[in-house]
Amino acid sequence: MSAANARLGWIGIGRMGYAMAERLAKGGADVTVWNRTAAKAAPLAAVGAKVAQDIVELASCDVVFVMVSTVDDVREVILGPRGLLSREGAKPRMIVECSSISVEGSAELRAALSARGIDMLAAPVSGNAKVIKAGRLSFVCSGPRTTFDAALPYLKMIGPAASYVGEGELARIVKICHNVFLGVVAQSLAEITVLAQKAGVPRHAFLEFMNQSVLGSTFSRYKTPAYVNLDFKATFTPPLLRKDLDLGLEAGRTHEVPMPLASVVRDTLQALVGRGHVEDDFATFILLQAQNSGITLAPENVPVGDGLS
Ligand SMILES: NC(=O)c1ccc[n+]([C@@H]2O[C@H](COP(=O)([O-])OP(=O)(O)OC[C@H]3O[C@@H](n4cnc5c(N)ncnc54)[C@H](OP(=O)(O)O)[C@@H]3O)[C@@H](O)[C@H]2O)c1
């Protein structure tokens, strides 16, 4: 990983943003970070990032990355009255918007930025913070090809894979489809793991077999510790995954595509949120599944790998 020479800004030091910005800083990039809750950004100073107190300090960077929660948050941090572009004068030449947001919201943002002469790359990602640390994050990107080419050296400092899928907001629909699949697979894995357990098979033994089968995947492997040992420290929360299922169902309505599995999973996430699992990991699918199956889960306390470390 070699340091490229643009001045970079980073807005949003949450679970994902922290790990992504950390890779830029550790790779030697000139990166200034800002987070609404300043304490979360402060530790990045130790790996060479500059920590801004005010978001407008980032306006003088060449390229600003954004990784916040929803489309409303994206609007607020970029275009809001106290956002990145709220002062006359300096503006970045490019914004790389990485949050998982709607096609429409992304198009609106692109138009607003284009009116100010700022290029935008839509660059949502696949992978959680641990995947980022393991150097396995993937970006899916859309926008002008030249914008993608200019951003690529920095994307490559964060993760090895960056796919360019075309103009406009095409990357958003790819990411939405990806996360609909994520929800459906995670819920299905919870269902069959509870079925196997209720029929007498320990979860670690069942998942060891699944992970080595043709259906095993990077995802099934890295969710295995949570499903076996019930560690629900959040990598990705039910409210954020519900947002993505909502985006998927909305896109299904727009394009008249039925999505029966996505509908059920959306409501399962709604049940998790309704039960208060808002700060936990979405692996809590397995708790709900067990409750609905009349069994109580206990951690198996068996060391199982996650395929990443
Ligand atoms: N976690 C995953 O596995 C994963 C994977 C792929 C994509 N994503 C997507 O990546 C995005 C971030 O996810 P995450 O898991 O990193 O979420 P997170 O840990 O909840 O972090 C959200 C970040 O956004 C900031 N933020 C939210 N609303 C804001 C606002 N109105 N103004 C300023 N800052 C605001 C938060 O600031 P504070 O710290 O002040 O709250 C925090 O830095 C989401 O769109 C998510 O769907 C997540």
Write up this protein.
This protein has 309 residues and is α/β, with parallel strands linked by helices. It has 12 helices and 9 strands. The protein has helices at 15-26, 38-41, 71-79, 103-115, 129-133, 145-158, 170-198, 203-212, 218-229, 238-255, 260-274, 285-292, and strands spanning 7-11, 30-34, 50-51, 63-66, 94-97, 119-122, 125-126, 138-142, 161-166. The protein has a 6-stranded parallel β-sheet with strand order 3-2-1-4-5-6, sandwiched between helices. The radius of gyration is 20 Å and the shape is globular. NADP nicotinamide-adenine-dinucleotide phosphate binds next to helix 1 and helix 3. NADP nicotinamide-adenine-dinucleotide phosphate is lined by residues 12-17, 35-37, 40, 67-69, 73, 76-77, 99-100, 125, 128, 235-236, 240.
Keywords:
309 residues, 12% strand, 12 helices, 3-stranded mixed sheet, 6-stranded parallel sheet, alpha/beta
N-to-C SSE series? EHEHEEHEHEEHEHEHHHHHH
What is the strand arrangement across the widest sheet? 3-2-1-4-5-6
- Given the C-alpha coordinates, what overall shape results? globular
Discrete helix count: 12
Radius of gyration: 20 Å
Mean pLDDT reading: 97
How would you briefly describe this protein structure?
The protein has 309 residues and is α/β, with parallel strands linked by helices.
Q: Topology of this structure?
A:
Blueprint: E1 7-11, H1 15-26, E2 30-34, H2 38-41, E3 50-51, E4 63-66, H3 71-79, E5 94-97, H4 103-115, E6 119-122, E7 125-126, H5 129-133, E8 138-142, H6 145-158, E9 161-166, H7 170-198, H8 203-212, H9 218-229, H10 238-255, H11 260-274, H12 285-292
Parallel strand pairs: 1-2, 1-4, 2-3, 4-5, 5-6, 8-9
Antiparallel strand pairs: 7-8
Bound molecules: NADP nicotinamide-adenine-dinucleotide phosphate.
